[in-house]
Specification:
The structure holds two protein chains of two kinds. Chain A is built from 15 helices and eleven strands. Chain A has one domain: Amidase signature (AS) enzymes (Alpha-Beta Complex), CATH 3.90.1300. Chain A is 36% helix and 12% strand. By secondary structure, chain A is an alpha/beta fold. Chain A is globular, with a radius of gyration of 21 Å. The model of chain A has no long low-confidence stretch (mean pLDDT 97). An eight-stranded mixed β-sheet of chain A has the order 4-6-5-10-11-9-7-8, sandwiched between helices. A three-stranded mixed β-sheet of chain A has the order 1-3-2, with helices on both faces. The relative contact order of chain A is 0.14. In chain A, a hairpin with a 5-residue loop joins strand 10 and strand 11. Chain B is α+β, with helices and mostly antiparallel strands. Chain B has three domains: 303 residues, no CATH class; 117 residues, no CATH class; 57 residues, Arc Repressor Mutant, subunit A (Orthogonal Bundle), CATH 1.10.10. Chain B is 40% helix and 20% strand. In chain B, strands 1, 2, 6, 7, 10, 11, 12, 13 and 14 form a nine-stranded mixed β-sheet that branches. In chain B, strand 8 and strand 9 form a beta hairpin. Chain B starts with a helix and ends with a helix. Classes of the chains: A alpha/beta, B alpha+beta. Chains A and B meet through helix 9 and helix 10 of A and loops of B.
């Protein structure tokens, strides 16, 4: 039984289709391991009982035509799930049970998957270490008291720790790729508009995008194929021809041109990150592809731009959590007093910080200097990529400027925390797809990731490059099960 | 009337002040569903029964633009002779209130869907052009109900998310009468277009009124005050009257006017301060990232243009030319689309040998009187246009006299009866047989020999006496024209 949770999604699907395993076997195995893994604090809400019922039902009447036949799966608690509590990691939604399902999770259940539970995340996806969650920090399966990254920290821990075969996260500035990199797994942030935002608790609407997180590239491709769909309920969803990403996956990337942007060689970047990047360049060449030095001149403006645009949108998106209609409400003397108490008690410090930043940059007198200027820079950043893609098919960078850090290490230094996203943020600002794959370990044995950035809607291409590199890298995640007695 | 006579000025000692008014009209888009959701917009439903997850701003819910509302806004823009912007942007107007579930209103700030336009008002002293600054689409908020419970406020979200068109005029209005004419004209145009029902009782049309005053002849604008959310023309006029006088009094006392938002208290007939400029909300407008800029093609606009019916100004012109009506008559008929429809149907049903002037007199006279007394709209008229046309024709071809027609009309009201039948059943047909009338008149002259002699001797007044006698003898049915002719001959 213990072997089951080590299997990849692709293997599990095969074994269920070949009737070597039942959905019940698989579901039980992941529930057992999840129950033994409470120390990771990866779950906010579990739905194990009902998951087992669903697995049994599936086994009674299996449908092997589905892409995820009877596969159990836990998802980030930012996706609204019908009749299952959805908190976004916040006290303010601690009692919120949606009557509706997000399009992305709906797509997953429609392909036969079974909900295991809801995974911990930074509050409203604001954070890079999963320390801002109202439900406590998440432990990384890589090492004790190590952050799994964020905001999809529960998701990363759950995949790396084998509590779920695959999962989905959301990525506004790196929230899929950075935790994937920290925990030695694969994470894809799709092109903006590829996955519907309907039913996902919004952080920054123009940046938010759901994406798959998996143990390997093939699993990631399969899950992406399931979740990506055009959705008229999301006005920013784009109706383009989607590939059969898993079927069309190939390791043949001969002749591809891969850009290496010099601006990602930032001051103070550890040598081991630079070395990893060089190794990546060599793998690319080994695969028969070509690397080309390119320039993305506005890269250094990406992080400040992001920390204007994202909080601005968040300050408005989070205005609906006011204690009036649903969620947490504090008692107040009058309406204004109720608002103030509800939001002071209901939101954590990081969320409050970003609401204040966002409110400030949108205020009259500051709007032009901050928000408007940020939008202009955002355009320049996108232009940089457009220019680069005239010469190259994809871009290779490190996923993060460092490996995972210890819990509490950066809690009191928000700017240092924000710097984690320096390589991932430009991709969100430009609306492009980016994938992080595990590519090596640092001196402490912690995983390090490389990021492949693609053209808009060119997920197939970066998945192929990742697939080819994965084979060459042959990464082995060192999971010691330290949290299981 | 000279222009001077109709000028609205406020007089104080030796000073005269002109009033400058601009209106922001909020017109509810006539649409089955809301601006960004599929909930119904029907008026008068039980509280909170027409609320979707989007309207109540549940987590992860997203707005999707209602194409029909966009078409309605563009049509209204065309009706206002305005520039249609092919690219417009929805912005968020951020503020907290219990009946604003999102914590922001989706509106259009920098790039509205409709730009500058104009409407023409028919004033007693001639036409007046009022500039339109812009028209934009926005969501309505819900309704807070403060008087149902001493401790709590109740919120009804049925209206939350309903599409509104905010139509902003230039500060071109100068009197309460012009405001009256402007609102009526806007309403008329939108009712012709079917883009707003203009029902002020149901809140489909309300306005924020900007008022300032300045010494007569001055070119500079005074400091303005905005009177929020006034929901009847009468209240708008009263509010302007009060507010303009208040401002003039301040100036006369040597005080300054604070730019502020004021409320009109309909019970006390006064405006009072709601918030000053310093307390004004910072709405932190920014483009709504959930919605892409709204882009419409030339073709889309052209197709809507083809859909535009004849509007009041054109209809009026045609009525004057085609039916030889006076400007006054035409105005009365076109100002309300249903009146115009009724009139045109009557004209059509009257057939070839028609008397349009007579029809107009009867519509604006007898019909309006009946509608007024019964409190009915012309669309609810108890007499159909078809039967009305028959009645006019009966008068025109001499079957009945105008006087008898009034009797017939009264009988028609109950159950929209065919006037032809009434005339036949009641034997009200006019006596137009010269021989029969001659016999009748001979008898009258015989019976009143002395009076006939007096008449011949010059007492011409007695002619009326003989007409009266003849009518009386015929039971009112005699053709008065024939009676006249025969009497003249015989006397």
């Amino acid at each position: 039984m213990s072997d089951i949770t080590k299997q990849s999604l692709t293997e599990l699907v095969e074994n269920i289709e070949n009737k070597k395993l039942s959905s019940t076997d698989v579901t039980k195995a992941f529930i057992d391991r999840s129950e033994k893994s409470e120390k990771l604090n990866a779950y906010i809400t579990n739905d194990f009982t009902s998951a087992l019922d669903k697995a049994k039902k599936f086994d009674q009447k299996p449908n092997f035509d589905l892409k995820l036949p009877g596969i159990p799966m836990a998802v980030k608690d930012l996706f609204c799930t019908k009749n299952i509590k959805t908190t976004a990691g916040s006290k303010i939604l601690n009692n919120f049970i949606p009557t509706y399902e997000s399009t992305v999770t709906e797509n997953i259940w429609n392909e036969g998957a079974i909900l295991l539970g809801k995974l911990n995340c930074d509050e409203f996806a604001m954070g890079s270490s999963n320390e801002t969650s109202f439900f406590g920090n998440v432990q990384s399966p890589i090492d004790k008291n190590l952050v799994p990254g964020g905001s999809s920290g529960g998701s990363a821990s759950a995949v790396a720790g084998q509590l779920t075969p695959v999962t989905i996260g959301t990525d506004t500035g790196g929230s899929i790729r950075q935790p994937a990199s920290f925990t030695g797994i694969v994470g894809l942030k799709p092109t903006y508009g590829s996955c519907s935002r309907y039913g996902i608790v919004a952080f920054a609407s123009s940046l938010d995008q759901a994406g798959p997180m998996a143990q390997n590239v093939k699993d990631c491709a399969l899950l992406h194929e399931v979740i990506s769909s055009y959705d008229p309920k999301d006005s920013t969803s784009i109706d383009f021809k989607r590939n059969h990403y898993s079927k069309e996956l190939t390791n043949n990337i001969k002749g591809k041109k891969i850009g290496i942007p010099k601006e990602y060689r930032v001051d103070g970047m550890p040598k081991e990150i630079e070395d990893l990047w060089q190794k990546g360049i060599q793998y690319i060449k080994d695969c028969g592809a070509e690397t080309i030095d390119i320039s993305l001149p506005n890269t250094s403006y990406a992080l400040p731009t992001y920390y204007i645009v994202a909080p601005a949108e968040a300050s408005s998106n989070l205005a609906r959590y006011d204690g009036v209609k649903y969620g947490f409400r504090a008692k107040g003397e009058n309406l204004i007093d109720m608002y103030e108490r509800t939001r002071s008690e209901g939101f954590g410090a990081e969320v409050q910080r970003r609401i204040m930043i966002g409110t400030y940059v949108l205020s009259s007198g500051y709007y032009d200097a901050y928000y408007l200027k940020a939008q202009k820079v955002r355009k320049l950043i996108k232009n940089d990529f457009d220019e680069a893609y005239k010469k190259v098919d994809a871009i290779l960078t490190p996923s993060t400027p460092s490996s995972a850090f210890k819990i509490g290490e950066k809690t009191n230094d928000p700017v240092s925390m924000y710097l984690n996203d320096i390589f991932t943020v430009p991709v969100n600002l430009a609306g492009l797809p980016g994938i992080s794959i595990p590519a090596g370990h640092d001196s402490k044995g912690y995983p390090l990731g490389l990021q492949i950035i693609g053209k808009a809607f060119d997920e197939q291409n970066i998945l192929n490059i990742a697939y080819a590199m994965e084979e060459k890298i042959n990464f082995k995640n060192k999971i010691t099960d330290w949290w299981i007695k | 009337m000279s222009k001077k006579d109709t000028e609205y000025l406020i007089n104080r000692k030796d000073n005269q002040y002109e009033v400058v008014i601009g209106l922001e009209v909020h017109a509810q888009v006539l649409s089955e569903s809301k601006l960004f959701s599929t909930s119904s917009t029907k008026f008068g439903a039980e509280p909170n029964t027409q609320v979707s997850l989007v309207d109540a701003a549940f987590p992860g819910m997203l707005p999707v633009i209602n194409e029909f509302c966009v078409k309605q806004a563009i049509k209204t823009g065309i009706g206002l002779n305005a520039k249609i912007n092919k690219r417009s942007v929805f912005d968020r107007k951020n503020y907290f209130y219990a009946d604003l579930p999102q914590g922001y209103q989706i509106s259009q700030f920098k790039d509205p869907i409709v730009g500058e336009g104009k409407v023409i008002l028919d004033m007693p002293n001639g036409q007046k052009e009022v500039g339109i600054e812009r028209l934009h689409l926005e969501q309505d908020a819900g309704k807070s109900i403060h008087d149902l419970d001493p401790q709590n406020t109740f919120v009804d979200l049925n209206r939350s998310g309903v599409a509104l068109m905010e139509i902003v005029s230039k500060p071109d209005l100068r009197s309460p009468d012009e405001v009256n004419a402007y609102i009526k004209k806007l309403r008329s145009i939108m009712r012709y277009l079917g883009t707003c029902d203009g029902n002020m009782q149901e809140g489909s049309l309300r306005a924020d009124v900007n008022v300032s005053v300045r010494p007569k002849g001055s070119k500079e604008f005074g400091t303005r005050c905005e009177i929020k959310n006034v929901n009847s023309i009468k209240f708008m006029q009263m509010a302007i009257e009060y507010e303009a006088n208040r401002q003039v009094d301040l100036i006369e006392e040597g005080k300054t006017i604070d730019q502020e938002t004021r409320l009109f208290d309909t019970r006390k007939n006064e405006t009072r301060s709601m918030r000053s400029k310093e307390d004004a909300h910072d709405y932190r407008y920014f483009p709504d990232p959930d919605l892409l800029p709204l882009e419409v093609s030339e073709k889309f606009i052209e197709e809507l243009k083809n859909d535009i019916p004849e509007l009041p100004d054109d209809k009026k012109k045609r009525f004057i030319e085609e039916f030889k009506l006076s400007s006054y008559e035409a105005n009365i008929l076109v100002s309300d689309i249903d009146t115009a429809k009724y009139f045109e149907e009557v004209v059509a049903k009257m057939g070839k040998n028609k008397d349009i002037k007579l029809a107009v007199n009867w519509i604006t006279g007898e019909l309006f009187a009946v509608l007024n007394s019964k409190g009915l709209e012309i669309s609810q008229s108890p007499v159909s246009a078809k039967n009305f046309a028959i009645l006019i024709n009966l008068i025109k071809n001499g079957t009945i006299s105008g006087k008898i027609a009034k009797t017939v009309f009264e009988l028609m009201i109950d159950g929209d009866k065919d006037p032809q039948k009434i005339v036949e059943e009641k034997g009200l047909k006019q006596q137009s047989d010269p021989k029969a009338l001659e016999a009748l008149i001979d008898k009258i002259i015989n019976d009143n020999r002395e009076k006939a002699i007096e008449y011949k001797q010059g007492k011409e007044k007695l002619f009326g006496f003989f007409v009266g006698q003849a009518m009386k003898a015929s039971g009112g049915k005699a053709n008065p024209q024939l009676i006249n002719e025969i009497l003249k001959k015989k006397l």
